[in-house]
């Protein structure tokens, strides 16, 4: 079989350049050189759910190559990168491991050699790159599969990287990656990116972090020297698993037995199952996703990596991940002393599910200069500070206003009757109220971090906080009055229901236990009104 589609020498990876959005394709070494110059704006064929695995792959591969070359400075030329990458596969000096198609008893890009080189019994049901990719959905509704009928080579490159480095466990014979806590979890990617930067600036930042963190990751039970770094280079019969102690700390994983073939002038994939995972099942289970991944947070008390559910990165989860102390922030998420200017925290993940996935989630939150400084202080002290306190106060404030809104909605939909005992609200009434409170909370979620930054940056934070609470209450009241049309419409009952609902809502805003700042404001407002009346 002929070697086909060489990533080391052929311009197979399409990009758009920063300068004018010009399209240009690169070889893998050429891409690294372009990233060093920060010339790449984006990758037009890269699908949203592939962004993190592609970024992680480029960072890990570059860091592995630089460490092997005994330098910490990114190489500047195509030839320098080509030499560094080829030196990672000394048993294949012809570069077979960097071709998309190679004889099956030899490595191909992200494809392990098949002992004996025969694909007897392998399935050929993956004719397109998106049909090979990781999104496994029971109803095929996340991203429609098998829609890329005129695939380019880089479509296959991204699909292979996505499948092999972030796949969950969809069923027997198809193992998930070890960089997640169990097969039904996910491999999240949290990191910092300069607001004014491009692909290259974030890539270079994370490569430097990878090199700086390497020795710490070794302490998790990896091999300091001569560890297996490119797992796809080593033969796999589907039975033998690798021990963590045999791996390089920045190893690039594969979890599935896949081989590309070139048939009828196009690429397609052959696949088969395995008897066990590529990396030790028992060790993976014991680690609970704690592998030293540069982008995955760790739940400290439960000693496990974070998984993302169908709720994604809502504002509550992001406050915990960004500012809370119950999670160990991954190296790429941590603010670096060399970081300058404004940044954004990027969070990406495919939500895990039982033998399926629950959608792709991505969120970016602004990190102002003051926020960045306060994050740096928290990292140094290990204790929450004003930033964490303000963020949690705002989460509590939204929760309290939402609860006041829900109670008022229940009163409205009950025709003005008072609230009964907890749990006594009819399910239909409760669900009707929830539809409106969810809409309110989603709107608050969308503006949460911009509003938070306004308070953090202000030299009058108390005034800003009060104004935010009042505005939040106004928005909640607008939701309540907007729900009047869904409440009772009989003339007398309509008046009673609406009046009782507004009274219940305003009473909830004056609860000194749940909304002390707002309650005190309204109390002072009432006192001032009385005083003004007396003086008049």
Keywords:
Topoisomerase I, Chain A, domain 4; 2 domains; Type I-E CRISPR-associated protein Cse1/CasA; alpha+beta; 536 residues
What would your notes on this structure say?
Helices cover 42% and strands 15% of the residues. The chain has 536 residues and is of the alpha+beta class. It has two domains: 4-381, no CATH class; 386-535, Topoisomerase I, Chain A, domain 4. The strands form six sheets. The chain has a three-stranded antiparallel β-sheet. The chain has a three-stranded antiparallel β-sheet with strand order 6-11-10. It has a three-stranded antiparallel β-sheet with strand order 7-15-16, with helices on both faces. The longest helix has 31 residues, at 427-457. The chain is elongated and about 95 Å long. The termini are far apart.
The number of helical segments is 14
Shape: elongated
Order of helices and strands: EEEHEHHEEHHEHEEEEHEEHEEEHHHHHH
Low-confidence parts, pLDDT < 50 over ≥5 residues?
A: 138-142
Our Rg estimate from Cα atoms comes to 27 Å
Major β-sheet profile: 3 strands, antiparallel
Proportion of strand residues: 5-15%
Number of domains as seen in the coordinates: 2
Number of strands: 16
| Straight-line distance between termini | 98 Å
Mean pLDDT: 92
What is the helix content?
Answer: 40-55%
Structural class: alpha+beta
Strand order of the largest sheet: 3-2-4
Secondary structure topology:
Layout: E1 4-6, E2 13-17, E3 23-26, H1 28-36, E4 40-42, H2 51-68, H3 78-86, E5 99-101, E6 123-126, H4 129-132, H5 153-166, E7 189-194, H6 199-218, E8 228-230, E9 247-252, E10 257-263, E11 266-272, H7 281-287, E12 298-299, E13 304-305, H8 315-323, E14 327-328, E15 343-353, E16 356-367, H9 369-381, H10 386-413, H11 427-457, H12 461-482, H13 491-509, H14 516-535
Parallel strand pairs: 8-9
Antiparallel strand pairs: 1-5, 2-3, 2-4, 6-11, 7-15, 10-11, 12-13, 12-14, 15-16
């Amino acid at each position: 079989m002929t070697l086909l589609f060489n990533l080391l020498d052929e311009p197979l990876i399409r990009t758009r350049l920063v300068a004018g959005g010009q399209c240009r394709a690169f070889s893998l070494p050429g891409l690294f050189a372009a990233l060093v110059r920060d010339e790449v704006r984006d990758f037009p064929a890269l699908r949203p759910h592939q962004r993190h695995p592609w970024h992680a792959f480029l960072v890990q591969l570059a860091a592995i190559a630089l460490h092997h070359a005994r330098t910490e400075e990114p190489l500047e030329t195509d030839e320098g990168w080509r030499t560094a990458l080829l030196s990672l596969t000394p048993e294949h000096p012809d570069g077979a491991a960097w071709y998309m198609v190679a004889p099956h008893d030899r490595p191909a890009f992200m494809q392990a050699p098949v002992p004996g080189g025969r694909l007897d019994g392998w399935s050929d049901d993956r004719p397109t790159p998106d049909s090979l990719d990781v999104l496994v959905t029971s109803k095929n509704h996340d991203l429609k599969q098998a829609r890329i009928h005129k695939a380019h080579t880089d479509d296959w490159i991204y699909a292979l990287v996505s499948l092999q480095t972030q796949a969950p466990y969809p069923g027997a014979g198809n193992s998930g990656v070890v960089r997640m806590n169990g097969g039904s979890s996910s491999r999240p990617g949290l990191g910092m990116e300069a607001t004014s930067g491009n692909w290259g600036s974030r890539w270079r930042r994370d490569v430097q972090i990878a090199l700086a963190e390497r020795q710490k990751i070794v302490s998790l039970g990896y091999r300091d020297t001569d560890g297996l770094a490119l797992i796809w280079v080593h033969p796999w019969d589907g039975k033998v698993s690798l021990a963590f102690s045999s791996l390089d700390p920045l190893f690039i994983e594969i979890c599935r037995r896949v081989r590309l073939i070139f048939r009828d002038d196009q690429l397609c994939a052959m696949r088969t199952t395995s008897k066990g995972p590529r990396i030790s099942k028992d060790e993976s289970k014991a680690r609970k996703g704690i592998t030293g991944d540069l982008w995955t947070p760790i739940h400290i008390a439960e000693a496990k990596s974070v998984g993302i559910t169908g709720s994604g990165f809502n504002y509550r989860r992001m406050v915990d991940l960004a500012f809370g102390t119950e999670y160990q922030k991954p190296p790429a998420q941590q603010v670096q002393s060399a970081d300058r200017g404004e940044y954004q925290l990027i969070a990406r993940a495919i939500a895990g599910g039982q033998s399926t996935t629950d959608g792709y989630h991505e969120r970016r939150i602004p990190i102002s200069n003051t926020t960045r400084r306060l994050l740096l202080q928290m990292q140094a002290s290990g204790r929450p500070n004003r930033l964490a306190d303000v963020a949690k106060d705002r989460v509590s404030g939204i929760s309290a206003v939402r609860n006041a809104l829900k109670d008022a909605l229940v009163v409205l939909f009950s025709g003005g009757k008072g609230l009964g005992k907890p749990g006594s609200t009819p399910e239909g009434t409760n669900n009707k109220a929830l539809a409106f409170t969810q809409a309110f909370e989603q709107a608050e979620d969308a503006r949460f971090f911009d509003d938070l930054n306004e308070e953090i940056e202000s030299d009058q934070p108390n005034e800003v906080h009060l104004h935010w609470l009042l505005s939040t209450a106004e928005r909640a009241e607008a939701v309540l009055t907007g729900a009047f049309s869904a409440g009772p419409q009989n003339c007398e009952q309509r008046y009673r229901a609406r009046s009782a609902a507004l009274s219940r809502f305003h009473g909830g805003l004056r609860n000194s236990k749940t909304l002390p700042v707002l309650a005190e404001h309204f109390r002072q407002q009432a006192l001032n009104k009385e005083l003004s009346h007396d003086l008049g």
